[in-house]
Amino acid sequence: MHLDPHAAAPLTALEGIGAKTAGRFRSLGVKSIQDLLFLLPRAYEDRTALKSISELVPGRVSVVRGEVFSLGEKGFRRSKVLEVLLTDGRGLLVLKWFHYGKWLKENLERRFPPGTDVLASGKVAFFAGKPEMHHPEVAPAQNWDDFGIIPLYPLAEGLGQRLVRKAVSSALERCRKSLKEWIPAKVLGDWNLPDLETSVAALHGPPPDQDIEALNEGQTPWHDRMRFGELLAFQLGLLLRKRDLSLQRSRPVPYTASLADEFISGLPFQLSGSQKRALDEIGRDMERETPMHRLLQGDVGSGKTVVAYIAMLRAAAAGRQGILMAPTEVLARQHYRTFLEWSEKTGIKVGFFTGNMGKNPRQELRERTERGDVSLIVGTHALIQEDVLFKDLALAVVDEQHRFGVLQRMALKEKGECPHFLVMTATPIPRSLAMVLYGDLDISIIDELPAGRKPVKTILFEDSDRARMYLRVANEVRGGGQVFIVYPLIEESEKIESLAASAMAEKLRKNIFPNLEIGLLTGRVPSAEKEETMALFRSGKIQVLVATTVIEVGIDVPDASLMVIENAERFGLFQLHQLRGRVGRGQRESTCILMAGKNIGEDAIKRLRTLTATNSGFRIAEEDLRMRGPGDFLGVRQSGLPCFRFADPFRDGRLLGMAVDSARKIFSEPGGLSGGLRDKVADFWSTAFNVSGSG
Ligand code: ADP
Ligand code: MG
Questions:
Q1: Nearest atom, ligand 1, residue 446 CA
Q2: What's the gap in Å between 294 CA and the centre of ligand 1?
Q3: Whose CA is closest to 14, among 137, 134, 171, 213?
Q4: Is 480 exposed, middle or buried (0-12, 13-18, 19+ CB in 10 A)?
Q5: What count of other Cβ atoms lies within 10 Å of the Cβ of residue 323?
Q6: Selection from 458, 453, 117 nearest residue 270 by Cα
Q7: Could you tell me if 322 and 397 are in contact, meaning their C-beta atoms sit under 8 angstroms apart?
Q8: Whose CA is nearest to atom 22 of ligand 1?
Q9: In this structure, what is the dihedral angle of CA atoms 642, 646, 650, 651, given to the nearest 10 degrees?
Q10: Which of 178, 438, 497, 695 could form a disulfide with 7 if both were Cys (CB 3.0 to 4.6 A apart)?
Q11: How confident is the model at residue 470 (pLDDT cuts 50, 70, 90)?
Q12: Pocket test for ligand 1, best of 269, 272, 551, 580 (most atoms within 8 A of CB)
């Protein structure tokens, strides 16, 4: 973007702002004058009406005019309080500071000696029937410049409201004109939105007759303009990406009868209707010359893996290669095992690639891959990190996609071969979220579970029911079933989590089930041992597997019929749903026991009841998203969500719809997305995704 030199100037270009203050602004992410203009108030205070002290209402932010009666400190040492008594002839108001430095006390003493006429503004509290304000703003009554609706800014250490307000008004004075509107006037007109300059100015200094509640709820046309702008830039960027993708060329994978069809008819089950539909959609994409870019979404256990395998088989049948990437080694290994089994019938060669394999096997696999000796390669993200070369990669599949995120997706695409691309996720994402995360993808949905699948019965036990839980475990094993006991992440530490799980395994072996085979699977178990433990569990030799969340995604053991989840309240709802999806895959009736931790609150219990009430991943995801917000729901760091400064696509659904609409219009007009507009979009994408040169 071409910045006006004034707006791009550092903050120190403003009068009264030195290096020190500029440093403090930096912790708010404000470096330039332009950043300061975009630092929007977090709330507004109504100082349009003076209140007399006798009218004050608790909890309300108010402004009072009065005379200083006295000023002094109360209490001793650490519990000292600075108090100013204010009177307006009819009542007495106590202003209190609990935390203050010497400078504040001296400042107040100097500027407001008894008898001074002042204005005080703050939230009113009542103590012993008397009104108080804590940490109010105080100013001499005669030069109360900021009377009206006053913006309150986010603050940082060493920055006070008055200082930020002053800085913003001088920035506005100086650079207001450099806020050039980049949204075409026609688009603004379509939605009746004010332009950028008007919006920024009004948000920093709303007119006195503006409805304060609308301001505080962010429901003004000015807020709308700022949010719409970001969403529009985002949507335009998506359209650009889509167009770039459609200009890419990849070799079609033509449909050859034989292999895939034979495999399908040899399966011990019938593909479900939605699996077939997804395969059709994928097949058609792969026959095109533009690379497929598709999301396959289906609830836990809906059978995405077999769909991926068949798609990859089509690549192999055409004499080309396919890769499947999984987010964890355990899951990658399981896919590998499944693929090996399936490939006994198809005769297709499968390779397995992880970050921690020995040097020689790795080198050998690399060479075979490059020669085209192996057709299907399964692995972890080591596959993209290392420079594995392919002879002829036709299809790349990524499992459990939201753990990867947009950036890795881009990295994979940049491997240069321009393969067809399929991402799979079990997270049923609401539409608004899907548009933001996957707006550049087409979507196939598997919306049914395989026939005959029995829903997992879920029960909630309190800690006092522990003995009953052990009884259930014993009964399950006696009946020929197998059991998972899962431990959550405690204190954000894999180490502690693993220790809790090991301690539990020990206790079960020694004290509770001395006659059962108990296995242990944590992130700290070496990978060879992990594999062995999984194999023993799968074969039924291990009856109870104590594990941390390493089993969370995708593990498939048909005879596992009971899952116990300890401290269930520490998991997200959707994560719990994914976990319980590990059981109920075979013929057995399956149960999931959620063990609530000690002394957890009503709310947590209520939240967990969502799971006992429904098996619908979609409903659970919605509930989870509603309660935790998209960042936590997706796992912020890995989520690949763009960072919006003003907009929140989940809150601003209406504006998002408007942006989609306008972006399509702009895009469809010849030359609609040119010059400044295009620069603006690139600029937005590079800051929002923190990458350069994409978009
Ligand atoms: P997910 O979608 O969670 O990745 P999987 O692909 O692991 O689910 O499939 C779960 C289980 O269901 C596997 O054992 C798989 O072989 C089996 N499966 C897949 N499709 C069907 C089907 N149409 N009918 C019966 N079982 C199926
Ligand atoms: Mg899976």
A1: 2
A2: 20
A3: 171
A4: exposed
A5: 26
A6: 453
A7: yes
A8: 450
A9: 170
A10: 178
A11: very high
A12: 269
Give the ligand 1 atom nearest the CA of 338: 16
* Between 166 and 549, residue with greater pLDDT: 166
> In the prediction, which pLDDT does 40 show?
93
Nearest CA to ligand 1 atom 26: 450
Token pair 């609150």 is at which residue? 601
Q: Whose CA is nearest to atom 25 of ligand 1?
A: 450
- Residue 407: is its pLDDT beyond 80? no
CA–centroid distance, residue 308 to ligand 2 (Å): 10
Ligand 1 pocket, residues with Cβ under 6 angstroms = 269-272, 275, 298, 300-306, 426, 450-451, 554, 556, 585
Tokens of 683: 């600029």
Q: Which ligand is closest in space to the CA of residue 538? A: 1
Angle at the Cα of 398 (from 396 to 399), degrees rounded to 5? 145
Q: How far is CA 601 from CA 375, 490, 597, in A?
A: 53, 18, 10
517 and 544 Cβ atoms separated by less than 8 Å: yes
181 vs 46: CA distance, rounded Å: 30
pLDDT digits (tens, 9 = 90+) for 159-215: 888 889 989 999 998 888 888 899 999 999 999 999 999 999 999 999 878 898 999
Reference 230, options 178, 204, 193, 201; nearest CA is 193
Q: φ and ψ at 689, to 5 degrees?
A: -105, 0
Strand partners, 64: 51, 120
The torsion region of residue 427 among left (phi > 0), alpha (psi -120 to 50) and beta comes to: beta
50 token code pair: 């003076």
CB atoms closer than 10 angstroms to residue 466: 13
3-state class of 642 per DSSP?
A: coil
Tell the residue number behind the tokens 């539909």, with chain if given: 277
pLDDT at position 422 over 50:
yes
Give the model confidence (pLDDT) of 136-159 as tens digits. 988 887 655 556 788 999 888 888
Tokens of 385: 């990190």
Residue 520 near residue 501 (C-beta atoms within 8 A): yes
The pTM score is: 0.66
Q: Pick the atom of ligand 1 nearest to 305's CA.
A: 6
SS3 87: strand
